[in-house]
Amino acid sequence: MTSTHPLRLRILRSGSSGNAIFLETAGTRLIVDVGLPAEVAARELDSIPGAAPITAILLTHEHDDHAKGAGPLSRLVGAPVLANAGTLAAAGDQLNGASTERLTTGVPFRVGSVQVEAFQVPHDATEPVGFVISGNGVSVLIATDLGGVTDEVISRARDADVLILEANYDLRLLSVSPYPWFLKNRILSPTGHLSNDAAARAVVGAASGRLRTVFLVHLSDINNLTPLARDTVQWALEREGIAAIHVEAVRPNGTSPLWQIAP
Ligand SMILES: [Zn+2]
Ligand SMILES: [Zn+2]
Q1: Whether 1 and 92 share a structural domain
Q2: pLDDT tens track, the chain, 263 positions
Q3: DSSP letter string over 201-262?
Q4: Could you tell me the distance, in angstroms and rounded to a whole number, from the CA of residue 213 to the centre of ligand 1?
Q5: Nearest ligand to the C-alpha of residue 63?
Q6: Ligand 1 center to 67 CA (angstroms)
Q7: How many structural domains does the chain have?
Q8: Ligand 2 center to residue 145 CA distance, Å?
Q9: Do 86 and 155 belong together in one domain?
Q10: pTM for this predicted structure
Q11: How far is the CA of 33 from the centre of ligand 1 (A)?
Q12: Do residues 11 and 97 share a domain?
């Protein structure tokens, strides 16, 4: 039985100091990444009406800003942590005492009433992935962190209604930022993070499909500006004459509104 309830989505935190996404569709409530203290994540969840119980916690990769609160939040809300073998092994102590379930990258599976598939992304972690989460006729693609846009990301984004995409830095701001060069080189590398320009190219590349809404996340608070990230993607779409895609950028270290997206 399909319900007419909208997809509900809130970026609980986004940026280099912590990432977590709440997503509810078809009665299934997921958290993607817990890169903030579990108590903070739990408090953010408490502010969302009807956000409990959480069905499962998904992890994209083991970096602290995505995984450090996953074990404690899992114990706190009584939901299992789902991740691939590489991420579960690399997350190690961060998952102490949590109940974990292994997923396989590239193999779709069900969580509650939604279908989830993890797909590989280029990033300097053990087995980093993005997710496609589909339920109630709405498909959401999450791609963060990634050093470049693969053909797979574009083709999957074309089939999604909603895209949650990294827009980490503006190249000019990064080049003049106080970051040491080893860190700048890590961010710029093909397994680092995604620039506003690369995010814009990805969105334009995916625009011929179902895609209607784009949320830009994981913005650097040093090497980016929220309006600049949004405008870079928006202007790229306008240059191509594409008006049907709505673009929002989430302030670094901030919390987004609770978005509702009708099926
Ligand atoms: Zn990372
Ligand atoms: Zn990250």
Answers
A1: yes
A2: 445 678 999 999 999 889 999 999 989 999 999 999 999 999 999 999 999 999 999 999 999 999 999 999 999 999 999 999 999 999 998 998 899 999 999 999 999 999 999 999 999 999 999 999 999 999 999 999 999 999 999 999 999 999 999 999 999 999 999 999 999 999 999 999 999 999 999 999 999 889 999 999 999 999 999 999 999 999 999 999 999 999 999 999 999 999 999 88
A3: HHHHHHTTSS--EEEEE---SSS--HHHHHHHHHHHHHHTT--S-EEEEPPTTB----EEE-
A4: 24
A5: 1
A6: 10
A7: 2
A8: 5
A9: no
A10: 0.96
A11: 11
A12: yes
